[in-house]
Amino acid sequence: MTAPRTSAPALRPDPAYLKAFAQIMSRIEKALGPKRPAKPVTVCVAGGAAMHFYVGGRFTDDIDAKIMARVMLDPQDLQVAYRGEDGHARLLYFDTQYNDSYALLHENAYDDARPIAVEGVDSRRLEVRLLTPLDLAVSKLARFSEQDQDDIRALAKAGLIDADALRRRAVATLPDYVGNMERIKTSIDLACRLILAARKKSKSKY
Question: What region does 112 belong to: left with phi over 0, alpha with psi -120 to 50, or beta?
Answer without folding.
Answer: alpha
